Amino acid sequence: MIPGEHRYVRFAITDRAARLRADRGGDEDQWSPSPALTPQWLRAHRDEFDVVHVHFGFEGRSPQELAEWVATLRDLQVPLVLTVHDLQLPHAQDQRRYRQQLGAILPAADAVLTLTPGAARQIRWEFGREAWVVPHPRMVPLAMIQAAARTAPERIRVGIHLKSLRANVARACVPAVADVVGRLRASGQPVELTIHAHPELRDVTFPRYDAPTLEMLDRVAAHDGVGVVWHERFTDRELWDYLRGLQVSVLPHRWGTHSGWLEECRDLGVVPVVGDVGYLAEQSGAHTFCWDGDAPDRNSLHHALSAAVAEAARGRSVTAATTWAGHRERTDRGSQQVHRRIYQSLTTIAGRG
């Protein structure tokens, strides 16, 4: 499983679908290119797996390296399964290299999966492949979802997390959201905005250091009801605690396909707001705004954020949280069954070969 140590894999597949062989040890750097994406690793570990399933991380290999890796799978008679999470890579402005990487691996896959019907249509149109649609799994423990009821809050806390300003993060989203929050506060609504970011952004040696962005954050932080918090990368537990401290989360993504962050919001009772990119709205049913170039359209952002604030103000009943947990449990079980059928089918075919 590439990558093997990821919550998506843990909940969407699990040992109910197959005996999983991770691509690396738990003590290895999970952000470096997977060692399993090399012909040498495949040959050295051939007796440890029957199917290779790739989710993401292959952008660390060149298109030529991926073509050689796929050829090695064919030589070893190992079926390849690909789940397409990203048709646009969030980490790059120029998508040409990533499209070449997809072109090396997607047409060669013995089975293709994706998360939304819209992405499946795009895969069919661009690559001529039919993809199984398997909804995104839950991203937090089931007990935490069951406990994610929320009383009607006295104040609505809106959050934007810039992380480390990866390529698809639109900086112009911050002052636009701050402006809408200011207007909501002026109308008497108890709304606050907190912007989180990783402290490495303030390090002049950091590759994405950007003085104008820091100046913008200083200006926005001077607004009434707005704060900026610098925090190191969250652990899973810290992320969940952060989200449970919000009522609304705005994703400042200028492009993308799907989002695990949206799933965590839904699981923990946070109301998400997203731009009209990729299949985020189809994936989550989030409140959606339009883009005007690289900045949000102010009118549609005001409409989406106002609707999200109104929804958050109603809270989330115990019944709603329990119902959602039950839905998650059923859809995750269905996902595990789909994966098991695909793996069994491919290994049966490979055995006949």
Automatic annotation (TrEMBL):
<feature type="domain" description="Glycosyltransferase subfamily 4-like N-terminal">
    <location>
        <begin position="39"/>
        <end position="135"/>
    </location>
</feature>
<keyword id="KW-0328">Glycosyltransferase</keyword>
<dbReference type="Pfam" id="PF13439">
    <property type="entry name" value="Glyco_transf_4"/>
</dbReference>
<dbReference type="GO" id="GO:0016757">
    <property type="term" value="F:glycosyltransferase activity"/>
</dbReference>
<dbReference type="InterPro" id="IPR028098">
    <property type="entry name" value="Glyco_trans_4-like_N"/>
</dbReference>
<protein>
    <recommendedName>
        <fullName>Glycosyltransferase subfamily 4-like N-terminal domain-containing protein</fullName>
    </recommendedName>
</protein>
<keyword id="KW-0808">Transferase</keyword>
